[in-house]
Amino acid sequence: MTYEMLVGDCAYSSWSLRGWLLFDAFGLPVRLHHVRMYSDDFAAALTDWPPARTVPVVRTPEGGIWSDSLAIAEGLAEAHPRAGHWPADPRARALARSVTAEMHSGFTALRGACPMNLRVFWKGFAAEDGVRADLARLEAVWAAAREMAGDGPWLFGAYSAADAFYAPVAMRIAGYGLPVSEAARAYVDAHLAHPPLRRWRAMGEAQNRTLDVYDKGLPTAAFPMPDRIPARAVPQGPSVNAACPYSGKPVAHFMEAGGRVWGFCNAFCRDKTVADPAAWPAFMDIYDS
Predict the structure, then answer these.
(1) 197 dihedral zone (left: phi>0; alpha: psi -120 to 50; beta)
(2) CA-CA distance, 191 to 166, in Å (whole number)?
(3) What is the DSSP string of 16-80?
(4) DSSP state, 11?
(5) How far apart are CA 35 and CA 57, in angstroms?
(6) Strands annotated E in the chain
């Protein structure tokens, strides 16, 4: 038995993104169950994960429930001490836990004014005083962590749970064009290029669901992700591969990339790959072979 996790819409659920990163970025397998937010299905789905009231929520291999992102982080760190969720150095670990807890409970102006949306870039967003104050605090927190850790793109050198918690804030900075320093922008760019985050965003594109509740009423542009391998869905094969690179099942849905046609067992497998082919190691293994 493996871990199972209930998550919301990948393009919008910032807390679900944190849950995903606490697994995927540390090489821990998890079986995802998706539920649509702002739908009649949401409350019904949670009844199978008591006592959770929101997402993400994890069922452990032993049948326990972690119904909060901090519980997920600490539970995984306890169960997998070598995975590296927290820095090994005691002083760095103390600061990492502190700034993670601050992210969990703070930055309310930024989070309220700039809900995460991985589908669009909002043009012309004007940050008000509360948002600017939160950005200043972010700069201070990130600088303190990097000063302790030294070189490296992440807050404490190696990727940690603190980075997973701040990833959705980095996506807000990218998606709203928020004013930050060059050093903070480099940290945002590291998140944008991070394969686990790219995989999460690709799943959101494959879900292809727009939630009007997140509409800011501003002109939009493409979300500023790194350049990707051009790909598009096509109606038919034959494909280079006979089995889906993810499930091993026979192919029935097709994509063109690199001048060749590739097959997948279902539309979701195809569409998440179309969104960002290089984010998926299993696909790239056959693409590069």
Answers:
(1) alpha
(2) 9
(3) HHHHHHHHHTTT--EEEEE--TTSTHHHHHHTTSTT--SS-EEE-TTS-EE-SHHHHHHHHHHH-
(4) T
(5) 12
(6) 3-7, 30-34, 57-59, 65-66, 120-122, 220-222, 231-234, 253-257, 260-264
- What's the rounded Cα separation, in Å, for the pair 20 and 29? 10
| Fold (topology level) of 90-198 | Glutathione S-transferase Yfyf (Class Pi); Chain A, domain 2 (1.20.1050)
How far is the C-alpha of 81 from the C-alpha of 78, rounded, in Å? 6
Residue 1 has pLDDT above 70, yes or no: no
**In one letter, which amino acid is 256?**
E
Cβ 208 vs Cβ 155: under 8 Å: no
- Domains 3-79 and 90-198 fall in the same CATH topology: no
Residues 6+ apart with CB under 8 A from 187: 142, 153, 154, 155, 170
Spans of all domains in the chain: 3-79, 90-198, 231-287
What does R_g of the chain's alpha carbons equal in angstroms?
Answer: 19
Peptide bond preceding 277: is omega within 30 degrees of 0, i.e. cis? Answer: no
Contact 164, 18 (CB under 8 A): yes
Which residue's entry shows tokens 């985050």? 197
Indicate if the pLDDT at residue 201 is higher than 70.
yes
Question: Are 270 and 284 in contact, with CB atoms under 8 Å apart?
Answer: no
Please give the model's pTM, rounded to 2 decimal places. Answer: 0.96
Structure tokens at 13: 């659920």
Query: Residues 215-262: pLDDT tens digits?
Result: 999 999 999 999 999 999 999 999 999 999 999 999 999 999 999 999
Does domain 3-79 sit in CATH 2.60.40.10?
Answer: no
First-to-last alpha carbon distance for the chain, in angstroms, is 32
> What counts of helices (H) and strands (E) characterise the chain?
11, 9
Q: What angle do CA 175, 181, 182 make, to 5 degrees?
A: 90
Closest CA to 280 of 200, 207, 225, 220: 200
